[in-house]
Design a protein that fits this description.
Blueprint lengths: L4 E3 L2 E6 L5 H10 L3 E4 L1 H9 L5 E2 H5 L14 H8 L5 H9 L7 E5 L3 H6 L4 H6 L4 H11 L5 E3 L5 H10 L3 E3 H29 L13 E5 L11 E4 L11 E4 L5 H14 L6 E6 L2 E7 L3 H11 L1 H4 L2 E5 L5 H7 L4 E6 L4 H8 L5 E4 L11 E6 L2 E6 L11 E2 L7 H14 L7 E5 L2 E6 L5 H19 L10 E4 L6 H10 L3 E4 L6 H10 L3 E4 L8
Parallel strand pairs: 2-3, 2-5, 3-4, 5-6, 13-14, 14-15, 21-22, 22-23
Antiparallel strand pairs: 1-7, 8-9, 10-15, 11-12, 11-13, 16-17, 18-23, 19-20, 19-21
């Protein structure tokens, strides 16, 4: 048996985040609700003139052990957990003088914020809430009779319910609040366990948990027949999760996925750089003396694919660059910032989404990535691997020139962000052709060369962009055919991880063509 509506006569309020606390207390008091509270919450309410009873007065037992023990008492948990329709529960309440508690308003010690600000181990431990999760879980379990609120954003919904039902809550709302309560304590415990594993140096503990907060319910997923939503993890990595949307339509599932890929790629470079992404693959990337130069060079690589793409910049967007971008139909622009002229230029393109992040993500920062499988998931470190000139091993008779070396490192950074099998041609700090996602590496090399030839024609350039370029491969060439296809396209130097049983054949083919080739010893598969 459950009661559909339960009138609130007594509420327990103990909150760390005191946003809206006084207004809530005043609203409850005006409805004749007795308020029990603790510590700072009780003090804040009393100072505002809200009648409040200290939990220690209610239990007849003082707070002890620096506040670690205050609500862990039968008169609190009995009042929350007692079923009003069970005779033995009602009898126990009467025998032990345990008044019912109909509403629990609790939010937890700021453990996540404490960790985020770099607090020491002991401070983090002290910010692990014990009584709070206990009361929340107890109230959620007994939601047939008790409403539980864990977030100030739910106060308005609660009070609206009380207005509509003469001071009572409905079972529908109590169940909804119970679900939110368990999600909150689960996320809290996940944060603690993740932090603890890190303190112990356990990258992959026997059990792992992670949580997210709903940021946006999407119109649909990758396709219209799929449902989707966007959740944030709270790690505050600059990008789509933290960006401010300046203008434009609501971001879609594919917009979010592609924009993340674009911004992570453009963050790889120290010089002004632009990346244009389509379907999570780059179709043009370039560095330049200015962000405008970088944009024009990135667009030149594949202007056809760039139509309807995502444009990411690692510098603030200026008016001149915005004027050029405005000539192209793009879905999203993401940048650290945009000046007033750029904002004015783009304002006329009402559907164009413009995201500003204030800063760039650190490509070398640690992090974890999750891929869902049927019945499980894969968990791995983010690919933060990078190679420098000092890491390279020259394996051919000819060593790369200084300019070739710069372009090789540039191309290899991009290859990390291209779906495997990945081939990237580059020259003078700009991509000349990109081959992505093919089952055969030689096909990726040929496709990239074909696209480069088409781009040259579109730009009115006599020779294909790949003439005199370098080429990067995300993994080793298993046969010499992929390298020979790149040589036919006009490359002069090659960068690849190495490690094939046929490396000697590939090296011999490079020497025969007069190419310089370096091995990185690091692979960048991206599936």
């Amino acid at each position: 048996m459950t009661a559909d509506t339960v009138r609130i006569t007594r509420a327990l309020i103990s909150v760390s985040d005191k946003t809206g606390l006084v207004a809530l207390g005043q609203a409850l008091a005006a409805r004749g609700v007795e308020i029990l509270s603790t510590g700072g919450s009780a003090q804040r309410l009393a100072e505002a003139g809200v009648p409040v009873k200290e939990v220690s007065d209610h239990t007849g037992f003082p707070e002890i052990m620096d506040g670690r023990v205050k609500t862990l008492h039968p008169r609190i948990h009995g009042g929350i957990l007692a079923r009003r329709d069970a005779a033995n529960h009602v009898e126990a309440m009467a025998t032990h003088d345990i008044p019912p508690i109909d509403l629990v308003v609790v939010n937890l010690y700021p453990f996540e914020a404490t960790v985020a600000k770099g607090a020491d181990f002991d401070d983090c431990i002290e910010n692990i809430d014990i009584g709070g999760p206990g009361m929340i879980r107890a109230a959620a379990k007994n939601h047939d009779f008790v409403a539980v609120v864990t977030d100030p954003s739910d106060y308005e919904e609660l009070l609206g319910e009380l207005d509509r039902h003469e001071g009572a809550t409905t079972l529908t709302l109590r169940r909804k609040l119970a679900q939110r309560a368990y999600a909150r304590t689960a996320a809290y415990d996940a944060a603690i366990s993740t932090w603890f594993a890190g303190q112990l140096g356990e990258t992959f503990p026997p059990r792992v948990a992670f949580a997210g907060t709903l940021a946006q319910t999407l119109r649909y997923g990758e396709n219209p027949h799929q449902q989707a939503a966007f959740y944030t993890t709270g790690d505050n990595r600059p990008g789509v999760a933290t960006a401010i949307q300046l203008q434009g339509k609501e971001l879609s599932y594919n917009n979010l996925n592609d924009t993340d890929a674009a911004y992570e790629l453009v963050a790889e470079f120290e010089e002004p750089a632009v990346a244009i992404i389509k379907h999570a693959n780059p179709c043009g990337v370039a560095q330049g003396a200015s962000i405008l130069d970088a944009y024009n060079l990135a667009l030149r690589c594949d202007p056809v694919s760039a139509f309807g793409g995502i444009i990411a910049l690692n510098r603030p967007l200026d008016g001149a660059t915005a004027e050029e971008i405005a000539k192209l139909f793009a879905e999203v622009i993401i940048a650290p910032d945009a000046d007033e002229q750029a904002r004015a230029v783009l304002a006329s393109k009402k559907n164009l989404r413009v995201l500003l992040t204030r800063e760039m993500p650190d490509p070398a920062a640690p992090g974890m990535m999750v891929k869902m499988l049927s019945g499980g998931f894969l968990l791995q470190n983010r690919d933060s691997g990078r190679v420098s000139a000092a890491d390279l091993k020259v394996v051919t008779k000819r060593a790369p020139t200084e300019q070739e070396l710069k372009d090789l490192l540039f191309a290899f950074r991009i290859a990390k962000h291209v779906k495997s099998n990945a081939i990237v041609y580059a020259k003078d700090g700009a991509t000349a052709g990109i081959g992505a996602g093919q089952m055969s590496r030689v096909d990726s090399a040929r496709i990239a060369a074909i696209k480069a030839a088409e781009a040259s024609k579109a730009a009115g350039i006599a020779l294909p962009l790949t003439q005199g370029s370098v080429v990067a491969s995300d993994a080793f060439f298993p046969f010499a055919d992929g390298l020979l296809a790149a040589a036919e396209a006009g490359v002069t130097a090659v960068i690849q991880p190495g490690g094939s049983i046929r490396d000697n054949e590939v090296i011999a083919a490079a020497d025969e063509k007069g190419l310089a080739m370096v091995f990185t010893g690091m692979r960048h598969f991206r599936h």
